[in-house]
Design a protein that fits this description.
This protein is α+β, with helices and mostly antiparallel strands. It contains 16 helices and 25 strands. It folds into 4 domains: 110 residues, no CATH class; 243 residues, Alpha-Beta Complex (Spore Coat Polysaccharide Biosynthesis Protein SpsA, Chain A), CATH 3.90.550; 49 residues, Orthogonal Bundle (Helicase, Ruva Protein, domain 3); 127 residues, Trefoil (Acidic Fibroblast Growth Factor, subunit A) (Trefoil). The protein is globular, with a radius of gyration of 27 Å. The N terminus is likely disordered. The structure holds uridine-diphosphate-N-acetylgalactosamine and manganese (II) ion. Its cofactor is Mn(2+).
């Protein structure tokens, strides 16, 4: 806690200053030269006897803070903060601690003003006169957090106030999901004491992000609800285009474009509207991003127009409060993290709404590579949430998810309320959703074979094996002893001749046999399985797929039905 103190002090000062661009925290000043010594204790910045300064003598009026042109401050205009390589051991430790606690570079964040300036990522189209209705509804902004870094949380909230028309912010509700970090427990009320629109709600026990959002919902009184993660930064004009869509049709659920705030440098990274993606999911019920499909592109004249999206990422969206209520908000049985974004996406579409990504609205988010906080022990939370989701919303398509988890549903609790919700709302079928809203999703049931792909050479114990994650794409596909548990050994052989899982297809272009994003145009991804000879012949090279036991890798050879290591058994083959 001792370490938090000077930072907290700096931000309190920061907040009080009238001119956003004239802020310099103690951290910032010290860091222009050497890095601060963590053992130095809570030193107030620029004390009266501070002789070491080349700044103008305006300290008294300005709460002892010093004027500096904005371009000198770290992170301004969304620029990267790059720490020098010659850090002292003590500072290195602070940097490491920041990473450990948050899974992003908290130290770098602490150097940046909580009011930092950002680039304006909007297309010109967004700024044309009369683009938005004039009488927009107000929103309650709901930000849930569990042990969020102080500077990051404050920057999220300030970015809302600093870059929204005040008359559109009904309130900002901060939901503390039972954090145990000192600054969050003791300093928030004081920090926001002069901002009547900020309301702080404390969960009596750890709720998980879904029930924390519901707690925020219970307190919110604005006609529109806007949810944000606690490590976001809103850019200029982010709010109006979201509210505009809801004002025109209250069943439209809208998401901003989520820009990347780099986890290491806190740089604000963005594309123009030609780089906008939409949300999808795979049969592991994991959310993923896609380029806008052609059928959707055809509906638009300008790339900045709102686009329909099959799913939302989850953290950042606005919704009409009454419509959210009508949809039954979230499933309260969802714990900690995950699945709620697909639940809300599916039911929005299936129960009469529309889900859009609004390219004129940009909000940054720190994407992390791991989850820094505790989940529950002894239970697979994500699987439980996903099974509840599948049971209520997926109809007969739930089998494709269950296949992926070895048909082990575990104890998923009572879902009868959620099922009656769906019935009472008279929602459409999941099949309707797939056919109309997400026609580009590959349906495993349409595959000719599914399950393991076992090579018959060397005793027949080797299977095609890969996690087939994004990071595995463009790399050789692997081999592993067959384990009969699905997972990384679950493959589909599609009618179109692909050997695939989700978006990854087995692909050969003359070098290694790799996994490559499925492109659907045969070529290097076309494999012809002869279920009698057991050979897998590659379309464009006319070679056959085999394995090299010594090198433990896939190889391509001239086809020879006498070689066992070219023979494969495809599970559940049915043509
Ligand atoms: C994404 C979403 C996130 C949520 C999640 C699926 C974006 C950018 N983020 O993961 O909002 O939809 O997918 O569930 O779309 N939190 C709590 N209590 C907890 C755990 C988390 O309040 O027990 C807070 C946390 O401080 C954060 C928010 O919930 O503000 C989301 O958590 P996250 O940032 O770890 O999720 P993320 O972005 O990886
Ligand atoms: Mn997040």
């Amino acid at each position: 806690a001792g370490e938090d103190r000077p930072i907290a002090e700096a931000y309190r000062q920061d907040h009080r200053l009238p001119n956003q661009n004239r802020i310099e925290s103690d951290r910032v000043k010290e860091n222009r030269g050497a890095f601060p010594d963590p053992d130095a204790g809570p030193v107030m910045p620029f004390k009266e006897d501070d002789q070491d300064n080349d700044e103008p003598q305006q300290k008294k009026e300005e709460d002892n803070l010093v004027l500096a042109p904005p371009q000198e401050l770290p992170g301004e205009m969304g620029k990267a903060v790059v720490l020098p390589t010659n850090l002292t051991e003590a500072v290195k430790k602070m940097v490491d601690d920041g990473w450990l606690k948050n899974a992003f570079n908290q130290y770098a964040s602490d150097m940046i003003s909580v009011h930092r300036s950002l680039p304006d990522p909007r297309d010109e189209w967004c700024k044309e006169p009369d683009r938005y209705l004039t009488n927009l509804p107000k929103t309650s902004v709901i930000i849930c957090f569990h042990n969020e870094a102080w500077s990051v949380l404050l920057r999220t909230v300030h970015s809302v106030f600093d870059r929204s028309p005040p008359e559109l912010i009904h309130e900002v509700i901060l939901v503390d999901d039972f954090s145990d970090m000192d600054h969050l427990k003791t300093q928030l009320e004081e920090y926001w004491a002069n901002e009547p629109k900020v309301k702080i709600v404390r969960a009596p026990k750890r709720l998980g992000l879904i029930r924390a959002r519901l707690l925020g919902y219970d307190y919110a009184t604005g006609p529109v609800l806007t949810y944000l993660d606690s490590h976001c930064e809103c850019t200029t004009g982010w709010l109006e285009p979201l509210l505009d869509r809801i004002a025109r049709n209250s069943t439209t659920v809208v998401c901003p474009v989520i820009d990347v705030i780099d986890d290491t440098t806190l740089a604000y990274l963005y594309h123009d509207s030609t780089g906008v993606n939409v949300g999808g999911f795979d049969w592991n019920l994991q959310f993923n991003w896609h380029a806008i499909p052609n059928h959707e592109k055809k509906r638009h004249k300008n790339t900045a127009e709102p686009v329909w999206s099959p799913t939302m990422a989850g953290g950042l969206f606005s919704i009409d409060r009454e419509f959210f209520k009508k949809l039954g908000t979230y499933d309260e049985g969802f714990d900690i993290w995950g699945g709620e974004n697909l639940e809300l996406s599916f039911k929005t579409w299936m129960c009469g709404g529309t889900l859009e990504i609004v390219p004129c609205s940009h909000v940054g988010h720190i994407f992390r590579k791991r989850s820094p906080y505790k989940w529950r022990s002894g239970i697979n939370v994500l699987r439980r949430n996903s099974v509840r989701l599948a049971e209520v919303w997926l109809d007969e398509y739930s089998q494709y998810y269950y296949q992926r988890i070895g048909n082990d549903k575990g104890d998923f609790g009572d879902i009868s309320d959620r099922r009656s919700l769906r019935n009472n709302l008279g929602c459409k079928s999941f099949r309707w959703y797939l056919d109309n809203i997400y026609p580009e999703l590959f349906i495993p049931g349409e595959a000719v074979a599914n399950g393991e792909m076992r090579n018959m050479g060397y005793g027949g114990k080797t299977c095609l094996d890969s996690a087939a994650r994004k990071s595995d794409l463009h790399k050789p596909a692997g081999l592993y002893p067959c384990h009969r548990q699905g997972g990384n050994q679950f493959w589909l052989y599609s009618k179109a001749g692909e050997i695939r899982r989700d978006e990854a297809c087995l692909d050969y272009s003359g070098q290694e046999v790799i996994l490559y994003p499925c492109h659907g145009s045969k070529g290097n991804q076309y494999w012809d399985y002869d279920s009698v000879k057991k050979l897998i012949r590659h379309g464009s090279s006319d070679k056959c797929l085999g394995i090299d036991a010594a090198k433990k890798k896939l190889i391509m050879e001239r086809c020879d039905p006498n070689l066992d290591h070219q023979k494969w058994n495809m599970e559940n083959y049915d043509r």
